[in-house]
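Entry for the shared binder. Reason: the reviewer on the internal report wants the predicted structure included alongside the sequence.
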Amino acid sequence: MQQSRTFSSRSLMEPAEAAGLSARLRERIFALQHGLDRASAALTSKATPKSIHEVRVAARRLRAFLRAFRRDLDPRSVKQYRRSLRALTRDLDEAREADVTRRAIGQLAKDGRGSIRLEAGALHGGVAEAYQAALQRLRSRMAVASWRRRLSSLRRLSMRPSLVPPNDEPASMIIMRRVNRVRRRLLLALRDAGRNPKGLHRLRLKVKQARYVLAGSGATPTLSAELELKALQHLQDCLGDMHDEENLRQSLRARRMPRRATRSIVEELERRKDARFKEFRKFRNEMLERWRDLDILIAAKV
């Protein structure tokens, strides 16, 4: 039982075959780009909160992989690739944030019977309208030829010969080294985590980076790896909720609305802060416990 809670530094890195580094990297980039292509096609066909989310996740998985292995890729090509991916996700940010706000207000504005409280009706209607407007702007953006050109450009970047320089070194140890570097950086950040919202947001980005790199490494799934990824998912979700609620709290304070329309929602968000932070500490401590055998990585700086 104890062994299943501990993660070996090799738990995600058991390659099926001894491939060269460049071949392995190109294989993983193709696979991640293919996932982005599928998600983008679904989004272009019908823009929904789910399809928007799936494109954002697919693009960020690819960006995380390119960042983790940037030393092994052509600097100019990988910089252009990552910049194009960032532009794609930036175009989706408005609709995603509007949807998060709409759903959060929809839950927080309800009374004990599940109906929207009278004093919050205008606020609830306003965020619903803002979401529909953001969604329509996104649909209009996707309807023009430049959107299709952008998606085609990303596919071409993934196949650019210069992106992955020739390297016949065995892939397994190099990939393990890059993955462990991501783990080590997150481990240090977890140990130093405080309560500052900006610091917790930066930590959330590191958790995402680690999770996406570990999941995107292409290793054969093991029980240890699945447990590690699940723990990172819990930590990411918790930090994501904290980030969304902090943004919503600040947004409501800045809105020009009668205080009674937002007071109960802001008070509820304030009450949640301590509970969310306790939940974060719980997940953080569990992650540190699971990674206790990675202390050697701190000293070795691999």
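Summary line for the report: The radius of gyration is 21 Å.
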